[in-house]
């Protein structure tokens, strides 16, 4: 079963860097990619564009950001679909819910923050370097012989 691509967004002006989770856009976008989304210009997105948009899921009070491809238009907005799905989404994306259009994908870079958020990643990327720095500072304070400089 595929999961919808849900993005964690870091806004930087008109560009948004998004770390994604889910498999609905595979193979185009995977959970190890970082996606760069540019704010929509006055012309709006076009058929085939990959867009990010806010959507309320049934089990959440706050909207999530989803990344899917535009496969059609309706009077109310855009029809979208994940590349891994055979059918379009059951809802219409309203223009005001669109965050932006994907302009760049950075492969594999999303794996690093995902790894850093695990306990093993925290130990390897934060705790071990911190212990090395602290130990080095203690040695430099005591001049490695137990005497203060």
From TrEMBL:
Protein known as: Signal peptidase I
Domain Peptidase S26: 5-85
Example GO BP: signal peptide processing
Record EC number: 3.4.21.89
Superkingdom of the source species: Archaea
Predominant location: membrane
Residue ranges of the TM segments: 122-142
InterPro entries: LexA/Signal_pep-like_sf (IPR036286), Peptidase_S26 (IPR019533), Peptidase_S26B (IPR001733)
Enzyme class: hydrolase
Coiled-coil spans in chain: none
Stored NCBIfam families: sigpep_I_arch
Organism of origin: Methanococcoides seepicolus
Keyword terms: Hydrolase, Membrane, Transmembrane, Transmembrane helix
GO cellular component: membrane
């Amino acid at each position: 079963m595929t999961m919808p691509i849900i993005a964690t967004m870091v806004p930087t002006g008109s560009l948004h860097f998004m770390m994604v989770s889910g498999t609905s856009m595979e193979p185009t976008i995977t959970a190890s990619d970082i996606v760069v989304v540019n704010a929509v210009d006055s012309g709006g997105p076009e058929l085939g564009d990959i867009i990010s948009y806010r959507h309320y899921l049934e089990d959440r009070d706050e909207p999530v950001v989803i990344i899917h491809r535009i496969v059609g238009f309706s009077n109310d907005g855009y029809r979208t679909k994940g590349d891994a799905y055979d059918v379009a989404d059951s809802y219409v994306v309203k223009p005001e819910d669109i965050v932006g259009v994907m302009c760049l994908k950075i492969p594999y870079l999303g794996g690093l923050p995902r790894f850093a958020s695990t306990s093993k990643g925290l130990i390897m990327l934060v705790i071990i370097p911190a212990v090395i720095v602290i130990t080095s500072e203690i040695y430099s304070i005591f001049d490695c012989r137990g005497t203060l400089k």
